[in-house]
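Entry for pyridoxal-5'-phosphate complex. Fields follow.
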Amino acid sequence: MSENSPKLRAALDGIPTYKPGKPAAAGGPAAYKLSSNENPYPPLPGVLESATRAAGAFNRYPDMACTGLMNELSERFEVPLGHLATGTGSVGVAQQLVQATSGPGDEVVYAWRSFEAYPIITQVSGATSVQVPLDRDEVHDLDAMAAAITDRTRLVFVCNPNNPTGTVVRRAELERFLDRVPSDVLVVLDEAYKEFIRDERVPDGIEIYRDRPNVCVLRTFSKAYGLAGLRVGFAVAHEPVAAALRKTAVPFGVSQLAQEAAVASLRSEDALRERVEALVAERTRVREALLAQGWTVPESQANFVWMRLGDRTQDFAAACERAGVIVRPYGDEGVRTTIGEVEANDLFLRAAEEFRKAL
Ligand SMILES: Cc1ncc(COP(=O)(O)O)c(C=O)c1O
């Protein structure tokens, strides 16, 4: 490095770069991208029209307060406007939460493996990650997480369902955990995949937060609602936390396109339900087929499935790519595969079957 290069914060040294899911190669054999937990469906009815209308005015800054969207969310979830904050995707809101709570000397606790943005946003804030291994069933070990909380802990992420394993924590264990967390430590329930949950024992974070001032719920329009490219997510939290989120937000971060598309998506509930139902049915089909082939696959409550493949991880991902589907390998740990369109899922299952036979 030249002596004259600008001084950067030492906290940035060694930050892992966020790895987006690999795209399908243009013109190559791989046709389907099952590597980013995206929704395979086009925008919900009415969404494109709303977004196009908003696009006609993009010489103007967006409504910084996201008034229309906030009103819609407030009504939909029966929460006061002062308990809501929006951001550039829920990862943007998660980053704001870490910025608002944690700096050098502070600790952020989360399960591992979990969403790969957690270590990055923690380190960017200068705080220290405390990673608590998932249990043998690939589920958050909430007892170990509670035990990992010290007087330096400022924030705990609970990713429910967990990315990349799809596993969930249930009401009784979550309540027991929350009862153990000191009231001055913020617990963030990251519910990016909430709409795909079918296990009735999994609580709705928005019910949990109501009488717990140290709980914040994160939701997104990127997954079930299919607006990943527009970058809009939101948090539900009590006033002091929501107000801190408004302070740490990038001004005008959520575009008018995103705001209008999110409102139109919320008003397209029936179509949303139908699509999510179809994806959930595919999730069941894919998992059952994998189990029948002999793989171990934890039950997933999200729009993806997880296979802990160890040192076969990269070979498996390469075999899938040759078969026309891009999946998401994690080092020598395992592979996460998004549930996509039926044809894509079929290609994936065929690749998994061939791989299995060759073992
Ligand atoms: C658990 C979890 N939280 C948050 C996000 C961020 O989604 P977005 O920023 O698109 O809302 C993701 C995306 O993959 C995720 O898996």
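NOTE: The two ends are 47 Å apart (CA to CA).
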